[in-house]
Design a protein that fits this description.
Phage tail protein beta-alpha-beta fold, Maltoporin, Chain A, 22-stranded antiparallel β-barrel, five-stranded mixed sheet, globular
Length: about 850
């Protein structure tokens, strides 16, 4: 349970409903004896009014923020008892008093804002289940709206990259592609992705309001950069394989970005930011506006942002690099989201979500001071729409019919004058789906009702890619038909007086998918939730997951690359030929995951929450680029199975004939007689990939210095191993350069008093090994501190009413990235691991927000 200043409470308050009248009657004696409070609360949403009421009355109010962020409470000014004030504030909400003592009031959900008059209660669905009111057995990390505001970040990608469970490598801004010798974690399009456990962006399923999004064309995973941060209500991260619930791609977990819906009022916001060393200036402008009534809502969000380029000349740490080398690309983005809902009667309602976005970026690569500049530019428009019809059936069953249409388009221009290469590439991805789900109570046991959800649908995916002037054009599609079922049963009736067995719940789910190009997959899942005593929750899951190879992995253009042998760890003379790109013969990927976790929320200690989860994912047939470290191909024996020495001219000619593209990155022209090795590095199914580790979390609040002090900490230990083929030993990837760190943590504090809020957050990335050089080199750990101060002016003043000003600093002490040698072998002067550290340095921003 969390305080009003930490709204991470929505999932726990939706477990039961008691009539509002009964709660008020029971509480009446306490109210009658309670003193009156002098209040001055303006006309605003119920959520904001509860915040103001808590501050002015010196109380702690626990409530689900999204359920309270509705309507507009009339101005409250004067002296009121608790009963009188709560009655006014909660009049237009679906909340009631659940528990109350002298200092704390807990609220819970009674009725949905879109429910008909006949509905007595609503049970929300949390990510990781299809069942209303089902207690999650999977580990779920919720990032609340307040967490987002306290972070000081302006982009959803920055928020996700800060999470300890997530790896910042792969397709993310600031990952320097040309200096990243690990091609599995290279960035090209400057998109933002979620990469749980470092298994790859394509192994994490991203949902927007519970719906799939089309993949970005250049890397076949969802690009979240287009989601306007101001429209985000919360983010739910399930760090567990969930293919039995959601289907393909949910191997490392699921991230559900939940956008605001029941927002009333208008808010404009402007943010400007600079860096201490120059470059990277930022501007973000946003507008939110929403109206709602008892049976309808309409919400719109518009956001525009621009971030300037940061070059090597702007930073002391890259002083020896070519001055125009891009450390952070130029980016410009515009996005809009519209959400709407309407209840026609007691039995039928409809909701609509629509997101459109366009992102443009460009950056410069210069491998050395003597080579010409290379320019890469991307334009990426995308959209995602979803319409859901909800029908109320007899016996509290509900029917959900959802249609989704989503798409993205990458247009990129690449110019490598050093090698005489100019490319124009267009990639398109589209997704269409229709799904029907029914959920309700199937029957009742002596221990309680057995809730089930059953459903099915069809998903159609299409992919188009072509290089101008080449034969690498591809136009592919697939259809996926699927059925799923889920059941949640209380094995033991809940009892608050039975020590050792307060509750025991079982969750079973299964999904069958039929692919037009891969056949069927069947994925089961089992979850248990055990409550031995009040305040302790033990949960465990086991399940299997499935992932079809992406279109890009199968049908990307086949390229043949010529390089100097010395560049890949070979002798000083001679060259090598290396194949890269798609492989149409790939097999589906499969995995098995296990989690075991404990959560502790003692009633005796105010707002304390502790959590720990052990996890393990066994991944088979994982699609990877087998050569993960280009500079060690000929020096590391682990790559020997992919190397053929002294290829014949006929073998070289055959490779030339199969290639769609040929790149000469060597220091001289191609000469078949000078080729000493042929290397196969096209996509392949690895024999095995295993990731295991432990996540820990802590959160607690105190009354301190006439304000409220909240502390939090999250950390994740990870061990990632990979075996490319059965004849070579397993290789530990975690804790090595350009891979997920062994340990990543984030912790901090927030203090609020009246309208003033002060936040300080520390970010830690453990030390790692630079395996790109021999002998290996130790890369030091990296710790940075973020801080921000915000002030909300009192309501009632004409100019300052609804005004909020915040000043934020990322990397407050301007900590430089730790030294790493091997990246400089590819990009002169780039001597740091850009997947785990940044050369941006201190960033300072000012945000001004005005709400009506």
């Amino acid at each position: 349970m969390t305080s009003v200043t930490n709204r991470n409470y929505h999932s726990s308050v939706s477990l039961a409903a008691i009539a509002l009248a009964a709660a008020l009657v029971c509480a009446a004696p306490a109210y009658a004896q309670a003193p009156k409070y002098k209040l001055d609360i303006p006309s605003e949403s119920a959520a904001k009014a509860l915040n103001d009421f808590a501050q002015q009355a010196g109380l702690q109010i626990l409530f689900p923020y999204e359920a309270a962020d509705v309507g507009r409470v009339p101005a409250i000014k004067g002296e009121y008892t608790l009963e009188e004030a709560l009655k006014l504030i909660l009049a237009g909400t679906n909340l009631e008093v659940a528990r109350q003592d002298e200092k704390t009031i807990s609220l819970r959900v009674v009725k949905s804002p879109l429910a008909g008059a006949g509905d007595e209660a609503v049970e929300v669905i949390v990510t990781g289940t299809h069942i209303r009111g089902g207690n999650p057995t999977s580990p779920v990390h919720t990032v609340t709206r307040k967490d987002i505001e306290q972070s000081g970040y302006s982009q959803i990608g920055d928020v996700m990259r800060s999470l300890p469970e997530n790896f910042s490598g792969g397709q993310n801004p600031g990952v320097i592609a040309a200096a990243t010798t690990n091609v599995n974690n290279s960035n090209f399009s400057s998109a933002s992705t979620v990469n749980l456990r470092g298994l790859g962006s394509d192994a994490t399923l991203v949902l927007l309001n519970g719906h799939r999004m089309a993949a970005d064309g250049h890397f076949q995973a969802s690009d979240i950069s287009g989601v306007p941060l101001g429209a985000v209500q919360r983010v739910e991260v399930v760090t567990d394989g969930a293919s039995a619930i959601y289907g393909s791609d949910a191997v490392a977990g699921v991230t559900n970005i939940v956008l605001r819906r029941n927002y009333s009022g208008t808010e404009i916001s402007g943010r400007v930011g600079v860096t201490a060393e120059g470059g990277g200036s930022e501007q973000t402008w946003s507008l939110l506006s929403g109206v709602n009534s008892s049976n309808s809502y309409l919400f719109a969000s518009f956001e525009m942002s621009r971030q300037g380029e940061v070059t090597a000349a702007d930073r002391e740490v890259t002083a020896s690099a070519p001055p125009t080398y891009s450390l952070m690309p130029y980016m410009k983005r515009a996005s809009a989201f519209i959400g709407a809902g309407h209840t026609f009667n007691d039995y039928l309602s409809v909701t609509f979500d629509g997101l459109v976005n366009e992102r443009k970026t460009h950056y410069t690569v210069q491998y050395s001071s003597t080579s010409p500049e290379s320019v890469i530019a991307f334009a990426t428009p995308s959209y995602s729409t979803a319409v859901t019809f909800d029908a109320r059936l007899p016996r509290d069953w509900k029917l959900h019919l959802t249609g989704v249409a989503s798409g993205s388009r990458n247009s990129n221009y690449i110019r490598y004058p050093a090698f005489g290469i100019t490319l124009n590439n267009i990639t398109k991805n589209t997704l269409r789906s229709l799904e029907l789900t029914a959920d309700g109570v199937a029957f009742s046991l002596p221990s309680g009702p057995v809730k089930v959800a059953v459903g099915g649908g069809r998903r159609e995916e299409a992919f188009v890619r072509g290089y101008a002037g080449t034969s690498g054009y591809q136009d592919r599609s697939r259809t996926v038909d699927y059925l799923y079922g889920e059941a949640h049963a209380p094995l033991v009736a809940r009892s608050d007086t039975r020590t050792g067995l307060h509750a025991l719940e079982l969750n079973l789910s299964a999904r069958v998918e039929d692919y037009s190009d891969f056949g069927q997959s069947r994925n089961p899942r089992v979850g248990l939730r055990y409550v031995p005593v009040e305040g302790v929750i033990v949960r465990s899951t086991w399940g299997k997951s499935f992932k079809a190879p992406t279109f890009l992995q199968m049908y990307n253009a086949k390229s043949l690359v010529l390089r100097d042998a010395a560049f890949v760890g070979g002798p000083a003379t001679g060259t090598i030929l290396m194949t890269q790109g798609g492989n149409p013969d790939l097999k589906p990927e499969r995995s098995e995951s296990v989690t075991f976790g404990v959560e502790y929320q003692p009633a005796q200690i105010d707002s304390l929450t502790l959590g720990a989860t052990w996890f393990k994912i066994d991944y088979t047939d994982r699609v990877v680029v087998p050569i993960s470290n280009i500079t060690a191909i000929l020096s590391d024996p682990i790559y020997a199975p992919f190397v053929k020495y002294n290829p014949t001219v006929a073998e070289q000619n055959a490779a030339m004939a199969e290639a769609d593209l040929f790149y000469n990155f060597a220091s001289g022209p191609y000469d078949p007689a000078g080729v000493i090795a042929f290397i196969r590095s096209a996509n392949t199914n690895a024999a095995a990939q295993t990731v295991s580790g432990v996540d820990v979390s802590y959160r607690q609040g105190f009354d301190w210095a006439e304000g409220r002090l909240n502390l939090f900490a999250n950390g994740s230990w990870v061990k990632l191993e990979q075996q490319t083929i059965s004849t070579v030993p397993s290789q530990e990837l975690s804790g090595t350069i350009f891979n997920v760190p062994d340990f990543k943590a984030r912790g901090g504090l927030s203090w609020q008093r009246g309208g003033l809020t002060v936040n300080a957050i520390a970010n830690y990335v453990s030390a790692s090994r630079d395996t790109g050089v021999l002998p290996e080199y130790r890369i030091a750990s990296w710790t940075t501190v973020d801080a921000n101060v915000g002030y909300v002016f009192e309501r009632g003043q004409a100019l300052t009413s609804g005004l909020k000003i915040s000043l934020a600093a990322s990397n407050l002490f301007d900590k430089a990235p730790p030294y790493a040698k091997s990246p400089g072998l590819v990009g002169q002067g780039i001597t740091f691991d850009s997947t785990n550290a940044s050369a941006m340095g201190r960033q300072i921003s000012l945000t001004v927000t005005k709400a009506w």
